[in-house]
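Researcher: First entry.
Model:
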Amino acid sequence: MTMGDRGPNEEMIGRPGSRHELGTPSLVVDLDVMDANIASLAEHAAAHGYEVRPVAKIHKSIEITRRQVEAGGRGPCCATLAEAEVMVDAGFSDVMLFTSVVTAPKLDRLAELNARADGFVICADHAANVVQLGEAARRSGRPMKVLVDLETGSHRTGIADDDEAVALARLIADTEGLEYAGVQGYTGHHMNITGFEARRLRGLEVLEPVVRVVERLRAEGLEPEIVSGGGTGSHDIDHELGVLTEIQAGTYLFMDGHYDGVEQRRGEPRPFEPALFVRTTVISNAQPGFVITDGGLKEVDNVFGIDHPVILRGAPPGAVYSIAGDDMGKITFADPGDRLQIGDAVEIQPPHCFQTMILYRYFHVVSGDELVDIWPVDAFDSW
């Protein structure tokens, strides 16, 4: 099969029933479900007084970012400089990079990026890095917005001491070329606690240092324009304290096995439905009790503590999907009498959507039974 610019399934775009003809393994997005997820969070944000800062690393897609921004979201937040470059060059303003840039080659790229960006924002947690960012901003010829990165329980980046956080904010404000813009206080380890009330209690605890530092900053005359944090699993909790101006939501867009069974909102457990899946094909049924598919470790991530993807469609009830090899998956039946035939398709939900997404260069976009488009993973190169 000859591969076109958008992969070997490109010729199927617009053909009725083409969803069921896709060559596999293929990464598929249900457009109608994804758009409904985007709308659901946008409506929640408008009703509860915060803004959505869509997380670009979840999809690395210009088209998906456009849909999120058009629904009322701010510019995307990015995990890597490469993602930020793609988003700025696609015309998005207010792009945020939530990790530090510290090496000379990347600082040169950062200066070039800031020169062509509108309202670019970056995070910092060290005075020496603030000095570097000031030099890069001055080389760029335009101001660069900087957030103080706070440690709130993840034990990754961020300042844990309140006095140091305030001092860094002052240094940013006093550094030529920089604009002090506020704080980031993100913690993700509680996002998939299953029960809403248990997650709520942990989420409010996580926000305590953010509330405390913001109060200190206000007292010091350093009112934060942006207070960024939260995410999919805390979006119906964070607004209670009124401290976050925006929520860094990502997985809500697609959903994944990591959130399977998590009660997302009080009284509304599933406001977001699975929109991303991998379509696989049964390639062997030579032995009883199980079949083998073409979706293995290189097609479906299983790194983050979940040992199997969730079967969405195509397999008998109770069947379990597991990884059988680099390019092979295994469907084990609950009933020994169950069977699947060679060529049968099974659609599975990844355990962790952005770990699976980076294994592919294309999203196959379906609406109903039809392949309606193929979108590139625009920021496929992540460094």
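Researcher: Second entry.
Model:
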Amino acid sequence: MDSFFDDDESNELVVSSPGQTRVSMLAIEAELLGELARAADDFARNNMFTERQRTKAWNSVRKEIAALSNFMLFLQQSADLSLSFHLAEEPHLWQAVTFGLVKLFLRWMQLKGYRIKTINDHLDVIKLYARLAHDAGFQTADQLISITNIPRIRGAQADRIDIEREQQDIPTNIGHKKPEPTFLEQEEFQALLNRPDTPQGWRDLVAILLMYDLSLRPSEAVSLKLKDLNMDERTLRITRHKTHDQQKARLTRRLYDALTRYLSLRQDRSPEAPLLVRSLKNEKLVERIPRAEPQVEAARRGGRRPYSPNRPLYAQRQPTSEMTRSARRKKVKGEVELWTPPITTRALAKHVHLIGLNIEEELHQATRMPEERLNLTSYDGRHEWTRRAIRSGSDPIAVTKAGGWKGHSAMVARYYGELDIVNEDIILE
């Protein structure tokens, strides 16, 4: 009969005690757990960037990708170094990012003519990703400290840099973004509100008043649906995309009257229909049309920037919306899906800009200098609203809340600081 004990070479029985068996099993399980932990650490470190991006707002991620794509463009143009992987995806690459490299990048941006604010924003992104790379184990503490200690360009230093660039014929603002908002004179503002008595004209007036009377951001205005509007209460439910707040705002009298006329011209009155819809060149509204293929709709809604150097990553990170998801739903055979497309932020910006040029042609007959042209954008209404509210004596805290900001607002502080008497509202006793 075979024994259940093992015999060694000297025929002596080896019997393990319960304590020895426990120690052996603990050693085996600790080794297995250690292997799993090392694999988990490697996964977390390698995906540190992408995991963070999944939890952030798309606009924030898009700006970070664009900033790091610009960093990669600097490496390509300055050192003929084309990276196969993106700095916004691969923490491994950051082990080679040093203080000197970042300083050269900032100097390169100055010589290229980037705005000081853009340079500071790009520096903030680099500091953020350097901290993430350090947490992932790909940046040393010395590298991180050196990079994070690079100061932002502020105040008088920024003015001196711009003066020096102007003397060397280097631009101080590249791109289409205006350095300063455009404020309208009373006659110009009345002309802005005097829209044609057409469906498109009333739609334009509603869009303008949403921004000039309620301080809506362009993206917040175009995302409104009819269900957000309560004409009985004369209120509007607003989703602040930047802060994710839900607010209710009271309609002004002229906005209520414009909405009443505009809604009477609408065909699609379903609650899920967009408030601001597209229009045609004949100024008719586009409602209840057959839905095109998803890629066609994406192109019509602005799509992805084909000229962007970070297009592959931009496309990969771009989230799908309810609109694109519904476009991919399978249709029943023979069924034609109808929908009402909203106006896009890009189309709204172009339309507002064209209205401004038309007002200038009508009132000033193109006698202004190029730098004085009525260069309206869809964000000018928000600036105008903030300045009017502050100059009319509104409390800055109330302005901050009504404007959809959280905490400190640079725009509110800016226009509050423009008051003629800076200590007008200060009470000492």
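Model: Note on the second entry: Residues 156 and 162 are 10 Å apart (CA to CA).
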